[in-house]
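Quick one: structure tokens for this chain, please?
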Amino acid sequence: MSIYPWFVVAWLFVVGLWGVISSRHLVHQILCLAVIQSSTYVLLLAIGYKNAAAAPVFATNPPTVPAVDPVVQTLTLTDIVIEATVIGLLLSLAVQAWKRFGTVDPDRLRALRG
């Protein structure tokens, strides 16, 4: 197994986290959260990868052929669906914040408590 996917995972996570911490715009922060979530896709696929393995279709492959772990692929697809739902919800909340308060700056929204 190669260590390159682990570097990609770390790089995506750090870049996304830096964007969330340094951004002053809700939509940018939400998109940076999506980048962080993308690092989990690469992580899951790197964990389940096997060299010279076939797709996990057991009806057509003989039992002696190694197959990629189908559970990890299923978890990755589930992760994508959950991320799309969460990003959609967060973007709708950002739109509502802009409509109600006229800003998407988290610091200015914090000052509106009260």
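The chain has a mean pLDDT of 87.
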